[in-house]
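Sample entry (397 residues):
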Amino acid sequence: MPATLPNKTARRAFLALQGLCEPPHRGQSKDDLLETVRRLGFVQVDSINTVARAHHMILFSRNATYRENHLKTLVEADRHLFENWTHDASIIPSQFFCFWRHRFAREEQRLQQRYEAWQGSPFLHECDGILERIARDGPVMTRDFGGDKPSTGWWDWHPSKTALEYLWRTGRLAIARRDGFQKVYDLAERVIPDDCHCAEVEHHDFVDWACRSALQRLGFATRGEIAAFWDLLKPDEVAAWLAEHADELETVLIETADGSKPRACLRFRDYPAFLDEAPEPPGRIRILSPFDPALRDRARAERLFGFHYRIEIFVPEPKRVYGYYVFPVLRGDRIVGRIDMKADRNADALTVRRFWPEKGIRLSKAFLTDLEAELDRMRRFAGVTGMAYAGDWLVTS
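Predicted structure, serialized as tokens:
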């Protein structure tokens, strides 16, 4: 009979692997930050800047001494990190570039057929011309090409914009830096360190790394969660790996937050002992990015934390349950609510519109003091001076 992992133990183990059980005010050097990204595996990048961009919020929530310039240096100067695609655009350790080569090959086959059907042979000529121009003249941005226009989707892009994104998604180009939030593209061999760019990995070793590293970061997972972690593998590749390495794995039943039927997951037989008694996370409240890796898999988050969460950016305003961009709120090992807030640069204030506590959360004086302390930390992180609360910002029933 498989062992059963109590829900609380599972939550704490996963939060420990996510770097959310460590002291949030411990001094963080640039090397410490690099290690954090390596441990997480990737940090999602998103353009929305309601309070701060997603990658900065993800890293700040783990360590309040996080410095944005450290991340910029690691990406743009040291080249220890690069930007490409997992399930979405993400910052990834450069040492993983050799594994992304396998993704690039698949993307090239998939996207080339799509774009050729859409734009015909001019698309390939556009790619060749862009590569020649960058090799000759150096890095470029989309705005360097006449006729480009803002995108409402790949199908509305000007051919040069499409070509740039295609060449990036297939590994020929890399993001050298961002100007504001606009990508600056250069040849990958100029951006990725030589030892990372030249390294090659056989397909079998690639699959082994992708499965093994995903399960190590998740602690316990279903086959689908292993496949989805990096979004690098096909389901049959994961199934074959699980069969090949069955002697290393064991099934464990993970209790759910709502008390429903436990979910059967896999973990390594040498599952780290400290995760069975993971440390209690810090009790202070932390506001998380909607794209935080601890909550990215919405179904897993709901099973572990009992927290149903969807981003409502694309939901018509009258149909939104909460708001355009609402942030999850973590306290200890529980998700305790969600908050609608925005850094209003014109008013130089963090505006708090609404806080919805989760069921069973009591809005005690101590709780509200902790929440306001976190909001003040977010204010300072966003770089605004004041706080502004809507009159009905607390939902009490």
